[in-house]
Amino acid sequence: MNHSADTVARLRAAFRSGRTKPVEWRVAQLRRLRAMLTENAPELAAALHADLGKSATEAQRTEIGFTVREIDHTLDHLDDWLRPEPAPVPAHLGTDARAWTQYDPLGVVLVIAPWNYPAQLLLTPVVGALAAGNAVLAKPSELAPATSAVLARLLRTYLDPEAVAVVEGGVPETTALLAERFDHIFYTGNGTVGRIVMRAAAEHLTPVTLELGGKSPAFVDRDADLKVVADRLAAGKFLNAGQTCVAPDYVLTDPGTAAALETEFVRAVESLYGTDPAASPEYGRIVDERHFDRLTGLLDSGRAVVGGESDRASKYLAPTVLADVDPSSPVMREEIFGPILPIVTVPGLDEAIDFINDRDKPLALYVFSESDDTRARIAAETSSGGLGYGLPLAHLTVSDLPFGGVGESGMGNYHGRYSIETFSHRKALLEKPLG
Ligand code: NAD
């Protein structure tokens, strides 16, 4: 047997033995995972810094602390979420019949993670898969090698080695894994690989969750307080040097507001990272040369209002805002996934809605408007994974909201109780006494 088949067989045997099913086992694993994160936070933060230039504050906030909060939320509510739910029984079955649903774990779950939040996006799905009582195979991203190595070692040490495995590696290793039969595959990354994952899963009729990306627009209404808008958009966009799946990809606004936003963005970037962001310890780096070259190739798509500077040796690309951007220019043809924020103009709300609906359904859509009517119209007339009014990114920190895309931005969702839904089968039960 090859290595992948071996690993999956071992996990399947553990699942079949029943060891992952008791709530006590699940809780113990979650507590171990929590201890893993808190006891090794400095080492993890150092790995995240090595891979992405992530600051210690950002590592704590968006990776370690984020996952710890998800664990705590799950530990607080797990009993409640797992409680069987009674269902009303129709009259023809008699008054002594009883019906209900219960959550069954699926079996062996494969989690494939990307490099941009390499700890959070590997571990948060793992939290859900364990909480639902599954055996788990975790595959970190090879593009964040330091974090991948630390996580592989720690997960093997802290969690039940019979029921949790880590396979490191890139395309060949992942391809080998995808040939195996899993009971669920949870993939976070781009749509091209998402299709590869779904095709492989189809061979075994394995359900998939695909957490993908795309261009998430930010619509700015002319009535909005542009100082607040620029501060919040810049903070959301330039976090992790723009390498965030729900980062505002571009600003959509009318020409007058666009002009007024320019100076606000210059001020906002300076207040976040000073006059020389390259020297700011809070500002991250591009993950590798391939992405660096791709991103610098997009800088010609508009006039840099702020930023534009880059240094290939250190993979530094300044927080950049581009004005006068044509909707057909290269920066508007792909997900940017880096620190470049184009401002695209449309005459007004109707055209903004058309602009959004003419393109792939985004993972997130952000709206900055004081008008209830505008906010309601966008909610009713567009489709996106999530919709944020007045604040980018934050919806994904609400553990009681489902996080996921729609259409080209993905399928399925997770976080909190939605992870239990994703990693369980909701079994229908009916009981009619024999007597
Ligand atoms: P990536 O390159 O790290 O790929 C993700 C995973 O797929 C990795 O584990 C990698 O080993 C594996 N992989 C790559 N090529 C493969 C192949 N040919 N066959 C099998 N497996 C393969 O990450 P990425 O795709 O560059 O990540 C960026 C994308 O992910 C963006 O589009 C972003 O929006 C999206 N994203 C989405 C979310 C979300 O939660 N929805 C979060 C982060 C990133």
TrEMBL record:
InterPro entries: Ald_DH/histidinol_DH, Ald_DH_C, Ald_DH_CS_CYS, Ald_DH_CS_GLU, Ald_DH_N, Aldehyde_DH_dom, Aldehyde_DH_NAD(P). It comes from Streptomyces cinnabarinus. Belongs to the aldehyde dehydrogenase family. The active site is at E211. Residues 8-428 form the Aldehyde dehydrogenase domain. It holds the Pfam family Aldedh. It comes from the Bacteria. This is Aldehyde dehydrogenase.
